[in-house]
Design brief:
Chains A, B: Keywords: Methyltransferase, Transferase. Two copies of one chain form a homodimer. By secondary structure, the first copy, chain A, is of the alpha/beta class. Chain A is built from 20 helices and 20 strands. The first copy, chain A, is globular and about 85 Å long.
């Protein structure tokens, strides 16, 4: 199993070459991180289908019956008014909104199948839909964790460090939420500091929370300022996204509806994602949970199209099952994988971009963490997802963001991107002449065919330790967790803050200070 | 993220129900292992295609040029004689065999597309091909490892313990090789003791090594005795398999050809698997390595069909890449995944069953081990593999078999089997009435729909720890590795030896003793 390859020269030359692999403004970091430039992977495989066309129609039909016969509560007067005027069935004094399938389908059909979200750095513009794939970092974790300092409530330093890692790694294409919630900043002004950090510490597409109209408006205005756009330009240019979680079952809460309204009015992107946990807020059957997911997602999407026809939206799927022993959410389960694949089938049925996730329920960076996370990705990628949220750093069902987990997940994501690179099947790649040259019992390392290609032939992992057992033992038997603990600090050291026009920077500061002086946003959400 | 489900009753009743889930002769083990009965999973998804039909033909054509123009060395006089008589081009005194594509394709077409390998326990008969999938345990590791005793050269006790685990877990469908090499048994008689153990400690389909004609003949005769078949019945009944590894590049060694001849003559199964490591024994390009893999696999398969037309064979793919820093084999890489998927396309082109693997290069049971193993499985399952070898317990690129790894992999395999279970999309599963009953802001746990289904609704993992962070911390923050360390011992305790007719048992003993008295088999292989 060991091979007499002459590798001394390889070990010397390969990293040097990798270190030079810089293009344009892309930073490839130190030799520890032989990154490729920022580029969204493309789906080269046909998405899988876990249900037949007839079965898909049965799910569609069931969710239409839910919308027609049962209805969804919209906890927002303006939203109900908009819906009533459009023909929805709403009894006076009630929140329940019933929509017939013709209305829903007509509205949903107004949403674009694919679109681009502009980034502050145009090289980081995000394509959503089509065959493009995007990975986002973990979002919304209340705690941060690393091995050196243990688990603690999220704070601004951790928040900023995760933003830096998200900027540093080219395989992270967007920042769809605060990686960790910085609870040391008062809730009334947290969104101001956080969005300002998004603008300053990264130049990738980001997300603002829908936690009350004021926060949406502040986030939108900060984004407009940060991007240097006029109000007229901004409303015609998707620049920022929000995630709208329905309050399953069958409810859209006030802040979420405010978010849908403000984002749609501003021409910005809403990712509508029901949190349909089979056995808890959704039926215990995967098909039933998907019926509910589909009804809720389409209700939110249809509503956004009422506010502004053609506004970009994303169909979000987050259906999983609970641990029947504790009621806690489980992730990366077989049920989760199937739901992720059918979620993709549903999104494609409505010609909508599809959001899935890379998630797990593990408490630490062990076999379980990788198994569940990779199986989540298996469902997302095979399901044809366009945005994979939480794809780096997610632990404990989202209760913590892990620094080491962030790094190990980067290796997974980079591997997926390579997996999605088309195979070279050219005459030269088929290598008949190299096979002829080497002949029986020979070795390929010495051939010109190999020498011409070996430096870039294979993906070079950042976490996987491929030393033999003896060398690895002598080095203290480090695990992937140990290596990631070292690497996340190296990545933070290598991080470089992207440039920002000083005039814009001042304008951001002025806006944040003014809004803080005004008291920020209400905290009774 | 936590939910107020009433779970006290669940925790009490669910395991009891699971403990009763016994059917027929299946042992489901203790409550720690809520296994389903032995049943091969079925491919419900269309296999992926990593290359187009034209590109697949280009690989086919390139491998045909290799067989026609370059040829393969067959290091066996009888084999060359057989090939020459069939029309192959062999120069006098040389080992090089050139076959034209018409000859190769005509011979390969004689092999069956699917077949059944009989097991000693007919309930464990193995379907090979079609939509059936089978998982085999790790094979051929020189070392065994567990946390309590560290890494040591394989020995008979470890060998037997891995056989017991393979028998105990219903998700292991066959034993395709010695899980670990018991080097404490002299090589001349090792095969006798090992095959006798295969017959006694398991009743699943197993494998005999092709390490010299005498070992094949002893293994075949022991199998015939163990199965209680007459020689006439045996030759008409596939009962046992061997793996034929070509000595890449372009060589079939003497013991492998002896194995192909003896297995084919006896009507038994050969799994022809070239070991084509891109950058070492194969071209550095994945397409080139696949060209070589295809040429070598088809050469072995065509030869087997010459010996006995229609004899069952399997197309084996094991193409991976080396670590360019050390020359060591890497597994679960993006290149590996793509090669596994194209391997499936090639096998289907020739209407042959396909063997792939669940492998990694990790030295311990960490994130890397799960990541690489799961990505290997991703390639194998998406590639439509029929037999996934090394699927439980493989570590260090095959240099050790791990007891804890065996258990963590069982969780992966059971999850894959559940993932391959068709989704129930019946009217009842769509759950519109349950959604109506619960309504907005309700909870599904209390509904009859949930109560009727929750016990069997979701896969219950054996390794994944779904406790919340606090409970998990109080329990000492165990990793999956820790849990697996406990579980493998519990599984060994729960193991029960399958029954064997005492008369057959005596006959096995008598055969082994006679052959030992005769000196066993030569050790100069």
């Amino acid at each position: 199993m060991t091979h007499d390859i002459e590798t001394a020269s390889l070990a010397e030359t390969a990293p040097a070459r990798r270190g030079r692999r810089r293009r344009g403004g892309e930073k490839t970091g130190p030799d520890l991180f032989p990154q490729k430039p920022f580029k969204q992977p493309r789906h080269i495989f046909k998405p899988l289908e876990a249900v037949s066309a007839d079965e898909l129609e049965a799910i569609h039909d069931a969710s239409m019956r839910v919308l027609e016969e049962i209805g969804i509560d919209f906890l927002h007067e303006e939203a109900k008014q908009i819906l009533k005027e459009a023909g929805a069935d709403i009894k006076p004094g009630e929140d329940r909104v019933r929509m017939d399938r013709a209305m829903v389908e007509e509205l949903v059909a107004k949403a674009p199948t694919e679109f681009t979200i502009r980034a502050r750095n145009r090289a980081h513009d995000l394509q959503v839909g089509g065959n493009a794939l995007a990975f986002s970092c973990v979002a919304s974790a209340p705690n941060a964790v690393d091995r050196d300092h243990g688990r603690r409530p999220g704070n601004q330093e951790d928040y900023r460090n995760f933003l830096k890692l998200s900027q540093f790694f080219n395989i992270i294409h967007c920042v769809m939420g605060y990686p960790v919630e910085p609870v040391d900043i008062h809730a009334s002004v947290r969104h101001l500091d956080c969005v300002a950090d998004m603008l300053r510490l990264t130049d990738k597409v980001y997300h603002i929370y829908s936690l009350g109209k004021e926060r949406n408006l502040d986030g939108l205005e900060l984004t407009r300022i940060g991007y240097g756009l006029t109000p007229e330009e901004f409303v015609e240019t998707p620049c920022v996204a929000t995630v709208i979680n329905t309050s399953s079952p069958l409810r859209l809460d006030t802040p979420m509806l405010q978010g849908l309204i403000e984002m749609a009015k501003a021409g910005q992107v809403s990712i509508v994602t029901p949190f349909t946990l089979a056995g808890a807020m959704a039926p215990v059957t995967v098909a039933g949970a998907l019926t509910l997911q589909n009804a809720e997602a389409l209700a939110g999407i249809a509503f956004a199209q009422l506010v502004r026809p053609g506004v970009p939206v994303v169909y979000g799927g987050f259906t999983s099952n609970v641990d029947m022993k504790s009621g806690a959410p489980a992730f990366g389960t077989p049920e989760y994988m199937k739901a992720a694949i059918v979620g993709g089938q549903l999104a494609r049925r409505y010609h909508l971009p599809y959001r899935s996730s890379g998630v797990c329920a593990a408490n630490t960076v062990d076999y379980q963490a990788a198994l569940e996370t990779t199986l989540s990705e298996w469902g997302a990628i095979n399901g044809g997802a366009h945005i994979v949220k939480h794809a780096a750093g997610w632990l404990e069902g989202g209760l913590s963001a892990g620094f080491e987990k962030f790094i190990t997940d980067i290796d997974l994501l980079q591997k997926i991107a390579e997996y999605l690179t088309p195979l070279d099947v050219s005459e030269a790649a088929l290598a008949v002449d190299a096979i002829r040259e080497v002949g029986p019992a020979g070795h390929f390392f010495g051939t010109q065919h190999t020498q011409d290609r070996y430096k870039d032939a294979f993906y070079a992992p950042i976490v996987s330790d491929w030393r033999n057992y003896e060398s690895w033992s002598e080095a203290g038997s480090p695990t992937a967790y140990d290596k990631a603990n070292m690497l996340y600090k190296k990545a933070l050291e290598a991080y470089e803050q992207p440039s920002l026009d000083p005039a814009i920077d001042e304008e951001i500061t002025a806006f944040v200070e003014r809004r803080k002086a005004e008291g920020g946003a209400p905290t009774d959400f």
